[in-house]
Amino acid sequence: MTKQDLQSHQYGARHNHDHCIDTALATAETLCVQQGQRLTKVRRRALELIWESHRPLGAYQLLAKLAEEGFNSAPPTVYRALDFLLGAGLIHKVESMNAYLGCSHADKAHKGYFLICDECHNVMEFDYQDIHAALIAKAAQQGFELRAETIELTGLCAKCKANSAGANP
Ligand SMILES: [Zn+2]
Ligand SMILES: [Zn+2]
Ligand SMILES: [Zn+2]
């Protein structure tokens, strides 16, 4: 991946995405050891590919990338790797995009709250578990048992907002 690709994949303010990837992989290694699981080659590579950007990756895109690299990319292998990563809390499924996103705080139990940019399709995970407690309480007032595991909010990210402001002064 070229430097330019990396930059175009950044969300929000400029940041060092290599750092995101390194942190995610280090967390994955630690969690797998703690859980007595093995981060096999295909699981690790799938996680790396999902972490290539902050734009969620679909199962078929992942399958194609793994195939290019000579992995066994039969759909069951790829889905098993995705199931493992989901089960270990290392990735989230963004339902509205039918795609997978690397989790940036996999070592903490949490629900998935996502800010999805309509423009660049980058997704930012944010961590406001108090919102979840408030939603459960409000829903309960209506006699409703909330079961949602993810909350997906769409809008415009900081970078796209800045770009559109620059284009229309
Ligand atoms: Zn990043
Ligand atoms: Zn997460
Ligand atoms: Zn954006």
Automatic annotation (TrEMBL):
Do you know which InterPro entries this protein is assigned to? FUR, Fur_C, WH-like_DNA-bd_sf, WH_DNA-bd_sf
The UniProt keywords, alphabetically, are: DNA-binding, Metal-binding, Repressor, Transcription, Transcription regulation, Zinc
Q: Describe how the cofactor binds.
A: Binds 1 zinc ion per subunit.
Cofactor(s) listed in the protein's UniProt record: Zn(2+)
Where does it sit, as one GO cellular component term?
A: cytosol
The keyword Acyltransferase appears for this protein: no
**Keyword Repressor belongs to the record:** yes
Swiss-Prot/TrEMBL GO biological process terms:
negative regulation of DNA-templated transcription; regulation of secondary metabolite biosynthetic process
Give the signal peptide range.
none
A GO molecular function for this record?
DNA-binding transcription factor activity
Residues annotated to bind Zn(2+)? 117, 120, 157, 160
Family according to the record: Belongs to the Fur family.
What's the protein here called?
A: Transcriptional repressor
Organism source for this protein? Marinomonas profundi
